[in-house]
Write a structure and sequence with these properties.
The chain is built from nine helices and nine strands. The chain has helices at 27-35, 77-80, 91-99, 108-124, 136-151, 165-172, 192-199, 211-227, 252-258, and strands at residues 13-15, 20-22, 38-47, 54-62, 68-76, 104-106, 128-133, 161-164, 234-235. The strands form two sheets. Strands 6-5-4-3-7-8-9 form a seven-stranded mixed sheet. Strands 1-2 form a two-stranded antiparallel ribbon.
Amino acid sequence: DALPISIDFKRFFVVDSVRCTCDKSISKQMEALMAQKNAYVVLDTETSIRDGLVFDFGWTTITSKGKVLGECSLNFLDVLCVEKPYYHNKIARYARDQRKGAHKVTTFAVGRRLFNMHISHLKSAGYRVILCAYNAGFDCRVLSATSRRLIGLDFLRSKVELLDIWGNWAMSAPKKYSAPATASGKFMSTSAENVYRFEMNMPEFVEAHTAFADTKIEAKILLKTIGRKKRMKIVKSPKDFDSRIWLKFPTKTQSEVVQ
């Protein structure tokens, strides 16, 4: 997690014994570089069937320009020993990734420690740390519940800001967005899979439903959202996330009924 600070402030400030003054002629360039100081920690979880405990956890940390600052893929053996994974047919894939060195098996306590160390390293390097997930309310809830259940501690050791990729994408989604209807037939699906299909023009794409792989597509959705230059909703508590997001995407037939 070597994270060198990429901004050389000496290029932008004239320093004397009294004050620091900003060179106005390059203020726009400076603002653009300062925006890169956000570290977006895109995380994802997969859970067990019975109690919804996190057994698969991954993250990809990026800047607003897409530079990768860190990544990790973990399975928690203490959960797998007592709970059946929701996507249990993926176990063979996890084993293959482990043999390739791309995936690690550990305990939840160790995974928690690694994640919090990563956050600490980012902060030490001067980054503004923003935890992100697609439908972030779910991931916040299950990580907190698993941590309390297994080790009796909060999942996070320090306070960080939070961003729901789903809700922020919805606020700037293209008007031409199109996707299959949900089971009710009233709304277009805004699942990560269908949003990624639309944004990347990959109609045949199939989501892996493994935590680390899913962070990769969610990070790309986040970058698309950031690129639209709309104000992002960043909150301090999961209770402040937008809810009922699907209501913004009625099917054409449902829109006609409402009108």
